[in-house]
Amino acid sequence: QVQLVESGGGLVQPGGSLRLSCEASGSIFSISAMGWYRQAPGKERELVAALKIVGGSTYYADSVKGRFTISRDNAKNTVYLQMNSLNVEDTAVYYCRTSTDNGQVYWGQGTQVTVSS
Fold it and tell me: Is 29 left (phi over 0), alpha (psi -120 to 50) or beta?
């Protein structure tokens, strides 16, 4: 079992920045990848950014390339999503997700990000 706890969401003005954190606990040795998803009202959940543990390769959705950065701190078992140049279309609930070597998937509880003037 892997437990994920997200933090860092909030209200920010257009053009502003936020950093989301996702701390993993439990069977963290089995984690193979971690990612951030988001779901806006009335829309499907979409992948925003992902990071492979082995090799460190990353993926970004086209809509966030150049603005968002996914990174990790191994010592803190934490993955971050640095979000810059936020716009109103980035408003959503952001979820941390992890997958393990044996194909299990775990989700965090979600954190609200609201971009508004």
Answer: alpha
Res 27: pLDDT: 86
Beta strands in 1-110 (DSSP E): 2-7, 10-12, 18-26, 31-39, 46-52, 58-60, 68-73, 78-83, 92-100, 105-107
The token pair at 110 is: 């979600």
Q: How far apart are CA 68 and CA 71, in angstroms?
A: 10
Give exposure, 17-36, as e/b (b: 16+ Cβ within 10 Å). Answer: ebebbbbbeeeeeebebbbb
Q: Do residues 91 and 114 make contact, with C-beta atoms less than 8 angstroms apart?
A: yes
Give the pLDDT confidence score for residue 42 in this predicted structure.
94
Report which secondary-structure segment, H or E, holds 87. none
Nearest of 95, 107, 100, 104 to residue 21 by alpha carbon: 95
pLDDT value at residue 74: 86
What sign does the dihedral 57-32-44-83 (CA atoms) show? Answer: negative
Min mean pLDDT across 39-48, 70-79, 86-95 is at: 70-79
